[in-house]
Amino acid sequence: MNINRELSWLSFNDRVLQEAGDRNVPAIERLRFLGIFSNNLDEFFRVRVATQRRLSLLSKKQQSLLLFDPQETLNQIQYIVMKHHKKFGKIYREIVNLLEKENIHIVNERKLDERQGEFVTNYFREVVRPSLVPIILTRNVNFPELKDNRLYFAVELFYSKATNQEGISLLEIPNNINRFLVLPQRENKKFVMLVDDVIRYNLREIYSIFNPSSLKAYNFKITRDAELDLDDDISQSWMDKMSASLQRRKKGDPVRFVYDKEMPENLLAFLKKSLKLSTSENIIRSGRYHNFKDFINFPDIGAKNLRYRKLTPVEHPYFVEKDRIMDVVRKRDVLLNYPYQSFNYIIDLLREAAIDTTVKEIKINLYRVASKSRIINALINAVRNGKQVTVILELQARFDEKNNIIWSNTLQESGVKVIFGVPGLKVHSKLILISQKRGNKMLHYAHIGTGNFHEGTATVYTDCALLTCDERITKEVVKVFQFFDTNYYRRIYRHLIVSPFNVRRRFSSLVNQEAINARENKPAKIILKLNNLVDEQLIKRLYDASQAGVEIILIIRGICSLMPGIKGLSDNIKVISIVDRFLEHARILYFHSNGEELYFISSADWMIRNIDKRVEVTTPIYDPKLKTVLKSLLEFQISDNVKARKIDVGASNKYASSDKKTKFQSQLETYKFFKQQCSE
Q1: 498-679 belongs to which homologous superfamily?
Q2: Greatest CA separation for the chain
Q3: Which fold is adopted by the domain 317-490?
Q4: Which among 290, 428, 447, 454 is annotated as catalytic?
Q5: Which percentage of the chain shows pLDDT scores above 90?
Q6: Tens of pLDDT along 520-577?
Q7: Which member of 152, 198, 376, 643 lies 3.0 to 4.6 Å from 580 by CB, making a disulfide possible if both were Cys?
Q8: Is 105 marked active-site?
Q9: Which comes out higher in pLDDT, residue 636 or 279?
């Protein structure tokens, strides 16, 4: 008795759309939430809808094993997506009107005066035109293979009646230039134009050699199945398989077609036929602009109140004296919290290790890294300084595969030992191990985190990281890295909880113990802050604990398959979700344990893939001071009456407002908390 995960994900994306519709959110930030919503939906179609589509093609006998009807799921997805689409359009128009009141105008090719027209034409000739390659469709030209999630114009060329000719051309809108052009200010008015309309304004110049009497351009895009198919050819290296699969991804089957609602029926029919789109595809009639993900980078123009007030990361209280990171960690455990505190501490740690003559070895897991990564630079510098550096690089980081292949070559060329994960398992743990020779002893420094080593996402994702020299932890981090080298040998973990070895057993045991305590009339409580909760077995454990009387509070950002508040099943389970300026990404787990109060941070969500098919690491937090910090973070989220939504069976996404007159916004309160800590 659980909620369908695909529909639960759509409910999460609806919460993102709620942020775009929230009139208390600054106008330009609202546009950016539309961009986030759009980007999320693109990935959902490329992966989840593509998977459902594949399942729908199975035989009836095969589908009977699924326990659900994939075609029915696809129908429900289509219904919800269209409902969200209408809501999206209404919110966009509202924001555009609001920006106009602030003297910021998003103009198209029909709204330019002569001076603006000259500016746009010059920009077109210097920047845009060199990237345009129009394709004239004739009987002798095969319809081209269109790229996934790229924007295209279908251009109709009309000639004089005497020639009785018409033509069709395809024109890819380049993605290597900024989607937005800021025009010269006029009086106190500011103007922004999409590159789509820059091209429309200069359309005749592109096709001047054909001398058409008129032209019309209609925007469309196609979304393809992006799941990677990796064959079992043992003669190929893992890198070769990944590269080949990435090439096949570009030609994946279509799963969505979005087009300009002004497009004539005959042109639409031609495109559908050429792209081999059946009536069962997700064909969506839309406005003139697609790929709204680009609105994430809408220009920073206009008054300051149109954007969030910047929250500059505060110093960690343990590093105020500017001591070396390693010196501090040697004395005490450190808990870092991004983006409230700076990710630069991790870069500084690696830089210190790279030049410290007593450091002999550095090992790290890399899943996603920035395109210009200071983490990579620090590792390469460590090799130059004579350190042994080992990188466990996960090539199957979805949509970052190409970037990771490039980095793997760079690292290997620099002398770094690169291990491409573990066969059959995706490495998703967030570990660093630094080995330092102090006298006759080898001392280990460990990092265990909830987020990637990515400087970019660390400014917008909320994550936690433990830095420690505690041998209970570091000895077991050593074991995890040994597993990457010799994965045929299984290690025993008494402190760390490591997928795929002991996660299901340990978490089941922790939940069951709370249920036992409740039945014995002892205090019993569970708080889980996760991105996704899908695993059926662990959900069943939570249901059982609820029925035993355990108070359970779940803070789930994304997918939640558990059904809260069902009489006799989940009466004692409350679920909230927080969507705000930062993406909630930290996984924090709390168990009352009859007053012992156990706290953990983890790289893993409670999903089958994280528990059984990945290498994930959850670490206990032993330091009482750090436990107090985590307790405060959880309390802030539970108390949120501004950005928290109640998760229920009906996917209503109602705000979890309270009777309190004072507004409590957890992310702002968290920032104040760390700022106060630093000043004490």
Answers
A1: Endonuclease Chain A (3.30.870.10)
A2: 94
A3: Endonuclease; Chain A (3.30.870)
A4: 428
A5: 70
A6: 999 999 999 999 999 999 999 999 999 999 999 999 999 999 999 999 999 999 999 9
A7: 643
A8: no
A9: 636
